[in-house]
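Dear support,

We are seeing what looks like truncated structure output for some complexes. This example has two components. We would appreciate it if you could run it in full and send us the complete C-alpha cell output so we can diff it against ours.
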Amino acid sequence: MLKNRIIPCLDVKNGRVVKGINFVDLKDAGDPVEQAKIYSDGGADEICFLDITASNENRDTIYDVVERTSKKCFVPLTVGGGVRSIDDINKLLNCGADKVSINTAAVENPKVVLDSSKKFGSQCIVVAIDAKKNGDKWEIFTHGGRNNSGLDALDYAKKMEDSGAGELLVTSMDRDGTQIGYDVDLMSKIASKVNIPLIASGGVGNLDHLVDGIKLGNASAVLAASIFHYGKHSVQEAKEYLDSKGIPVRI
Amino acid sequence: MKVTIVDYNSGNISSVINSFKEVAKDKVNIEVTADLSKIKSSDKVVLPGQGSFKSCVDALNKINGLTEALHEFAINNKKPLLGICVGLQMFADIGYEETETKGLGWISGKVSKIDNQNGKYKLPHIGWNQINIVKESKIFENIENNSHMYFVHSYEFLPNDKNVISATTDYSSNIVCSVEKENIFGTQFHPEKSDKLGLKIIDNFINI
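Here is the complete output from our reference environment:
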C-alpha cells in the first residue's frame, strides 16, 4: 500500500538554515546539510529546501548546499525558491536535487512547466501554488505571496497538471505561519480536481493538523516546517501519531 | 572491481552516482560514462533511466554502438546488469509512453500505463510503497519482505514470463517492481532514494 508522506521543509538563506532544529549536539546548527541528515535519519520521507536568498549574488549558495546534502541523504530531495528557467532546473538536478519546485515562473510562463517536464520528466517537476481565499474562490499569488495574479487556483491547478507537473505543492497564504492548520477546504477541492498527487503546506501547528491534511484535505503528502524546528516534534513522533490515527505511513 | 553507471543523457543521474559511491566507498571503482570500451571492460553495469520510455530509448540510440555494447555485456557475456526505473522498463520489447517505441527486448513483454481505475489512483505513483518479494533474488539478500521503497512512475512493465518477477507492489493492481532473469536485474523503484534499505540493495548488486 502506498504510504502518505511527511516532508519537513527547511528555509535556506545564503546557504544557511533560517529556522531549524535546535539540538545541542549539532556541530553547526545553521548548516542545512546537518539538519537534512537529522530529518532523513529520523524517517522523513522526503526533504524540502526552500531557498529564500534575496540577493542574486548569493544565489549560487543553494547549489553547494544541494550538492553536499545529496551526498549524505538518500531520500528524495526537493528544492524550490527562485527557480526561473530550464537552466536553473538543470543546475539543481545536476547538483543532486531529485525534484524542483517552480512557483512564480510557472504563473508568468506556463511553458517552463511544459518544457521542463518534457526535458527532465514529470517526476521531477513540482508546481508550487500559493493561494489565498477571496470570497468563495482562491486566487494564485506570486513573488512569495506579494502579487495577486487574479488566476483561479482550481483552474490553474488543472492547467499545471495538463502542462506536465508531476505533483502540486499547495500552500494556503491565509494559513502560512499561523499554526492554525491547513486550509483543508482548498486542499480537498484541488485534490479532487486533479489526478496528480497533492502536497499540503501552510499552517501546521500540531500533529492533528497533519492528520487533517490527509483525511480532510485528501493530500498525498504533508509538508511542515516549524513544528519540526526547535525539537517541538520529531518526524518519528509525527509518523507514530498518524499511524495511531489509521493513516498509512512508512515506519 | 569496476561498476559502470551508463551516462547516456537519460535525465538526472546524480542521485544514482552518489548512492553507488556511498556504498562503494574506496573498495569498488564507480565509473560514470557512455564509453563503449569502458562498458565492455566493466564487471557490472547500471542502466538508470528517467523521463519517458521513448526519451530514454532515443537517448540510448543516439550514442553510436551503445545498445550493441550493452547487449554484448548483458546477453552475450552474461555479466550482471541492473536497470533502474525506465532502465528496467527498457528491457521490454515495446513501450507505449508518448508513442509506441521498441525497447531492448531482453525480457519479453511490454510497458503500459498503470490502470488508475478512472482517477481512483493518482498518477504518477509517487512515494513509499511496500514490496512483496515473490522469489528469491540476489539483490534482496537481507531485505525483509514488505520493506518500503521509493517509487515514482506512471507506467509498468508487464513481462510475458511471470517467472522473471522477483517483487511486486500494490497500487491499483500488483505492479511488477523487480525482475531477475539470470544476470539481468531491474527495479521499478529507486534504490538510490530508498534510504538504508535501498543502499543495501545497491550493496547486494555490487557484491554479486
